[in-house]
Amino acid sequence: MSGFESKLAEMGVTLPDAPAPAANYVPYVQVGDTLYVSGQISAGADGFITGKLGDDMSVEDGAAAARTCAISLLAQVKAACGGDLDRLVRVVKLTGFVNSTAEFGDQPKVVNGASDFLAEALGDAGRHSRSAVSAASLPFGVAVEIEGIFQIK
After folding, report:
1. Going along the chain, which residue ranges are E strands?
2. What is the pLDDT of residues 23-81, one digit of tens each?
């Protein structure tokens, strides 16, 4: 088990198989040592995590949904690295989309669910730049979608 995966195991997290794309795109593209991972939607063992922040979902539930996106992002990174997550050098940038009402303004607190998870799991390699924006709706009614840019070796 890799160093990063050992830390994930300590946290009680096992990376799932990388989710398949839901439409006509690839899950990731590598250019040199940069890996661009397509948006990962909030989903758990029971399926999609749906809801609209500012309406029927709390910030805490949104942050938990964002955490699932981060887990899927790492699963994609692992797949792109041939199963060796230790090829990950660092998380460079996340862009988080939060399904929220026009009045909701806590998108950063929601996306913190992903950022906090990555920092805990990966240490300094998990600290990243970020955007957190509102979306009027997201695919399948999910609460959160997050895409990422990663440096790998």
Report:
1. 28-31, 34-41, 43-44, 47-48, 88-99, 129-135, 144-152
2. 999 999 999 999 999 999 999 999 999 999 999 999 999 999 999 999 999 999 999 99
Both tokens assigned to 127: 């600290």
Q: Which residues pair with 57 in a beta bridge?
A: 53
What is the residue extent of each domain of the chain? 41-152
Please state, in angstroms and as integers, the Cα–Cα distance from residue 139 to each residue in 70, 121, 144, 151, following that order.
17, 27, 9, 27
CATH of 41-152, one of 3.30.1330.40, 3.30.365.10, 2.30.30.760, 3.40.50.2300: 3.30.1330.40
pTM of the model: 0.97
CB 114 within 8 A of CB 147: no
Whether residue 140 contacts residue 41, with contact meaning beta carbons closer than 8 Å, is answered with yes
Q: Which amino acid appears at position 46 of this protein? A: D
